[in-house]
Design goal:
The complex is a heterodimer of chains A (191) and B (281). Chain A is mainly alpha-helical and 191 residues long. Chain A has helices at residues 13-21, 33-37, 48-57, 60-67, 71-74, 80-84, 91-104, 113-129, 134-145, 154-160, 174-184. In chain A, helix 3 (48-57) runs antiparallel to helix 4 (60-67), helix 8 (113-129) runs antiparallel to helix 9 and helix 8 (113-129) packs across helix 11 (174-184). The longest helix of chain A has 17 residues, at 113-129. Chain A starts with 12 loop residues before the first helix and ends in a 7-residue tail after the last helix. With 281 residues, chain B is of the alpha/beta class. Classes of the chains: A mainly alpha (191), B alpha/beta (281).
Chain lengths: 191, 281
């Protein structure tokens, strides 16, 4: 990788991204291939190439726009952007970092609450059983998102097809998983 | 013949059909699949979206457990789990400091020596070479092979097949007598983990994939990922509602198609569990 592309140390999101995930935002020359290939670009408030451009300005108000965007949560991590980027800029890794920063600074776009609730419910399930308990996940998500009636139509057929379990499959060494959660996402678990 | 397997959570629940077809196929070819003992969830999309260290520690525990139990080669049929395990292995290999930190978090010896194989690599290595004389019912159908995202991307990490227009699954299908179609939606995303939280996006993206395959005259889609399967199959009512259509194209796992070709029954490979009826047996 080119080392001449390093930013000087300053209080910008671009610098933080470079420092934490080694993604050099200023390498982007705005060809737009990421936005052209992104399957959810049309759903996003800021298509990926625009996220890159805003970060390049290193202006506070633009950094805020990125951290409060819907885009960072709509990103599917399909890796298409990275695969097609002529500069091999790792946008998916950058998006992971931006999501985590957006959460830790309490800047998650309110419209994206359901997506975050789903991820949280998913991690809750793993935290308590070691494996994903699908029924538990759906019920926990419903509780968090209050989408109580969603997907009710699927349940009878899932049961009929033998695809829905009512009892979670527990791992044996749960203390190990608890320890991993404590040491990573913290005592508050996935909250 | 004995090799390791990491089934992952989907295969024990909503992708039971995939699990049944993988194990039935293994049995038919005298391959013993040994589960990674007391395996945990890989963390999937949720972990890497919310916490990087967690997203590396969960797969690292799985890999360290495989190493500890002498499973040198591990089949990972779920493309999403495969991606998380392979990406973790790659990141920890490239960054020794991170490797130490994750090793400390999981409190296990992690070397990173496990050879991970996806389902197509498994088929190519252990099934295809032994196909001679085994095909009792050629899979004489037009198929659209759908690879999705995580079998081929990130291509620099996985180093598997071409990122655009991959071929491995098409070639495997030809070996059982199928007729793979040119299919530009091969690696377009199905909507992945937004299935529950933003179903309409999944309906839109998955619908495009199905529409194109139907338009090209496919008898079935062939997939190798439980997440893709659930979006394309279980989400069909949402897809048809979104597109105001009545898509009937079935979605089969690659292991189900091969299983049928070597004489396994529809029930052996779990076809009765699908939401969209499969008129192929």
């Amino acid at each position: 990788m080119s080392h001449s592309a390093h930013l000087i140390e300053r209080d910008s999101l671009a610098y933080a991204i470079e420092k934490h995930v080694e993604v050099h935002t200023q390498k982007c020359y705005q060809c737009g291939k990421c936005s052209a290939g992104c399957p959810v670009a049309t759903e996003m408030d800021l298509p990926p190439s625009l996220v890159m451009r805003l970060l390049q300005t290193e202006r506070k108000e633009n950094d805020e726009k990125v951290l409060r965007s819907e885009s960072i949560w709509l990103c599917l991590t399909c890796e298409m952007c990275l695969s097609r980027c002529p500069m091999e800029i790792d946008i998916p890794s950058m998006m992971d970092y931006l999501r985590q920063k957006s959460r830790s600074e309490k800047k998650v776009n309110p419209k994206m609450k359901n997506i975050v609730s789903f991820h949280k419910a998913f991690l809750h399930s793993i935290q308590y059983t070691g494996r994903l308990f699908e029924l538990g996940l759906i019920l926990d998500y419903k509780r968090q998102s209050l989408n109580l009636t969603q997907d009710m139509m699927l349940a009878p057929k899932m049961i009929g097809n033998g695809k829905l379990h009512f009892i979670p499959e527990m791992m044996k060494d749960m203390p190990h998983i608890t320890r991993i959660f404590k040491k990573t996402i913290g005592k508050g678990g996935s909250k | 013949m004995k090799i390791g397997i990491y089934p992952g959570c989907s295969l024990t629940g909503s992708a039971r059909d995939y699990n049944e077809s993988v194990f039935a196929l293994a049995k038919a070819f005298d391959i013993e699949l040994v589960q990674v003992p007391d395996w945990n969830c890989c963390g999937a999309t949720a972990a890497h979206n919310l916490n990087k260290e967690l997203s590396l520690s969960l797969p690292a525990r799985i890999l360290a457990t495989a190493e500890k139990n002498g499973l040198d080669e591990v089949l990972v049929p779920c493309a999403a789990c495969y991606s998380r395990l392979a990406v973790t292995q790659h990141e920890l290999k490239m960054n020794p400091e991170l490797k130490n930190r994750i090793g400390e978090i999981i409190g296990m010896d992690y070397r990173g020596t496990t050879k991970l194989i996806n389902v197509i690599e498994w088929i190519d290595a252990y099934i295809i070479p032994n196909l001679e004389g085994r095909i009792t019912k050629p899979f004489d159908y037009k198929v659209a092979c759908y690879y999705g995202c995580l079998m081929v991307r990130p291509n620099k990490v996985l180093n598997y097949d071409r990122a655009e227009d991959p071929q491995t699954m098409d070639i495997a299908m030809e070996k059982i007598g199928a007729h793979p179609l040119y299919f530009p939606f091969k690696t377009e995303c199905c909507g992945a983990g937004l299935s529950v939280s933003r179903t309409e996006i999944v309906a839109k993206l998955s619908g495009k994939i199905i529409e194109d395959a139907e338009h090209r005259g496919a008898d079935t889609l062939i997939v190798a990922c439980p997440m893709c399967h659930s979006n394309l199959d279980m989400r069909r009512p949402s897809i048809n509602k979104y597109w105001e259509s009545d898509f009937k194209l079935p979605v089969m796992y690659v292991t189900q198609a091969i299983g049928l070709a070597v004489g396994l029954t529809a029930k052996d490979v779990g076809l009765q569990r699908h939401f969209v009826k499969v008129n192929i047996s």
